[in-house]
Amino acid sequence: MKEIIVKCPGTVANLVCGFDILGLALNEPSDIMEVKLLDEPKVIIHNRDAYNLPTDPERNVAGVVFLSVMEKVGGNIGFEVTIEKHIKPGSGIGSSAASAAGAAVAANHLLGNRFSSDEVVQFAMNGEKLASGVKHADNIAPCILGGISLIRSIHPLDIVSIPSPDLFVTVIHPQIEVRTSDARQILKQQVLLKDAIRQWGNIAGLVTGFMKNDLDLVGRSLEDVIIEPVRSILIPGFDEVKRKCKEAGALGGGISGSGPSVFMLSRDEPTARNVESVMKEVYTRIGIDFYTYVTTINKKGVEVVEKQV
Amino acid sequence: MKEIIVKCPGTVANLVCGFDILGLALNEPSDIMEVKLLDEPKVIIHNRDAYNLPTDPERNVAGVVFLSVMEKVGGNIGFEVTIEKHIKPGSGIGSSAASAAGAAVAANHLLGNRFSSDEVVQFAMNGEKLASGVKHADNIAPCILGGISLIRSIHPLDIVSIPSPDLFVTVIHPQIEVRTSDARQILKQQVLLKDAIRQWGNIAGLVTGFMKNDLDLVGRSLEDVIIEPVRSILIPGFDEVKRKCKEAGALGGGISGSGPSVFMLSRDEPTARNVESVMKEVYTRIGIDFYTYVTTINKKGVEVVEKQV
Q1: Residue to substitute from B198, B200, B210, interface A, most A β-carbons within 10 A
Q2: Do B208 and A20 touch (CB under 8 A)?
Q3: Cβ atoms within 10 Å, residue B306
Q4: ipTM over 0.90 threshold
Q5: If residue B61 lies in a helix (H) or strand (E), which one and from where to where?
């Protein structure tokens, strides 16, 4: 019986001006999943954490992914998984994507890597759909591939890896709930053309800055005139945190995914640590509990860390 | 008395999905301007072409640029210019931008290159404002700098050069009039968020494709779901030309500037020539006169080609 352990990184999607199209992978936090290939068509899920996620495969993000792989492959195969979550569900740093991506990568590995990376992303997207109601890939793709991913298009799927500079990422997860569906609902269906133009100037600047390793340009381009002004009202203290983090030297940042986590990019670790202090200070004063992470961009994506045959 | 000759390239602005933010310079056609520095505060304009453009400095694109330089510098300086236009006014390939950029670069050169390239762009934008009523830079910047320019922002001015692959460009200028102001007026002030997202995915893909020299990605990203569907109705035969050019091997393309010229990018010269044949065939059948150009991306921008001191 084949068994592997996969390490699945947290991710930041909706990268400021890159709403729905740009995401990056983090070195911290990450989930651990132990996955066995079974010789009968069933999915068994164990949780080794305190989050009480459903163990019914049809209601579990990883479960749905395994089922979709089984449907594709057919025959007498199944999966048993033990999930150890460190990425808190609802944090906005890709908790469900980590489970979905981990399941897809693990299943593919156990089946002899028979699927292309696009196919693995497609399997994982089935899990994301269960979690958020929408098939999106801006957490899934960086989680699987590492680094910064551009999802140029979902139909047809077109994922492009963007060479990423060695940036530090500070994340604060204030302990409030922002439901992805709510965060989507408050967005306006229409936007001003002039705002859209400003946004696509920033997107082009951000991608160019990443690829040229021009961090001043990255900083200037980290501006979202469309989504952030609407969604940030769901996150107490957002404007203050952002302003103070930039004063503390952050290149810029914004809402991670649909929140409530907020992330900031910095050139170096001391700055990223200063940014963390500023974030903690604001939320301590406001009186909202939080977790923080100071980490770097994960360039590997989901890792298979141990095998037993 | 100092005198120089400058060669000012035509440009393609509104580069498909890069409306208002991306432009590229062409090796053909280009204007020639002979410019002398005078020791009295006046601007003298001669035309050496058949376009009968105004020679009153306040009503001439180059004149306005010279006047703005003189206002900045002060003292007893002026300019005498002879303009030989090869970029037909109203063609949509940056005729006014060439005059404006040529005047700004020439003036700066004659004054000992005392201004930064951003300042030179700013001077030239005064000329563009006279021509189109709007201060935009997506023709000016590539005309001055060469290659592909991103105008991330106009206020403040933020111009970024995008490394450009060696692409061939086919341009057809159908002899119809599309006024820039009309082309602007028919645009909707509001766009669907989902279209804007698709557009910024394409922008990011296009820039990444240029920088990675991934021409398949460039081709997939050359899609404009916002401006082209509206503006293309002003250009007879547009949809047919575009479809047939892509069938003939073009990576893609669209309306140049606000039209009526249509441009297509190709990997190599034979393809670019096939694309030209296809364009000619369609407009011959429709019965609209045209000019065509098969050229490459100009990587130098405005050139000072001869000096006499």
Answers
A1: B200
A2: no
A3: 12
A4: yes
A5: helix B61-73
Computed over its alpha carbons, how large is the radius of gyration of chain A?
19
- Rounded to an integer, the average pLDDT of A177-184 is 79
Distance from chain centroid for Cα A210: 18
3-state secondary structure of A172: strand
Assessment of whether the complete model's pTM goes beyond 0.90: yes
A3-163+298-308, CATH topology level: Ribosomal Protein S5; domain 2 (3.30.230)
Chain A nearest C-alpha distance from B205 (Å): 6
Query: Which residues 126-155 in chain B show a CB within 8 A of chain A?
Result: 150-153
φ, ψ (nearest 5 deg) of residue A65: -65, -45
Output phi, psi for A110, to 5 deg. Answer: -65, -25
Domain range B3-161+298-308, CATH architecture: 2-Layer Sandwich (3.30)
pLDDT, tens digit (0-9, with 9 covering 90-100), for B134-168? 778 999 999 999 999 999 999 999 999 999 999 99
Identify each DSSP E strand in chain B by its residue range: 3-12, 22-38, 43-47, 78-84, 148-153, 158-162, 168-174, 190-192, 252-255, 262-266, 290-296, 303-308
Whether B18 and chain A come into contact, CB under 8 Å, resolves to yes
Query: Does the structure show a pLDDT above 70 at B309?
Result: no
DSSP A287-298: T--EEEEEEEB-
Q: Where in chain B is the domain with CATH 3.30.230.10?
A: 3-161+298-308
Interchain CB distance below 8 Å, A21 and B204: yes
Does B103 contact chain A (CB < 8 Å)?
no
Are the Cβ atoms of A205 and B160 closer than 8 angstroms?
yes
Backbone angles phi, psi at A290, to 5 degrees: -160, 160
CATH 3.30.70.890: which residues of chain B? 168-296
A168-296: CATH number: 3.30.70.890
Nearest CA in chain B to A202: B152
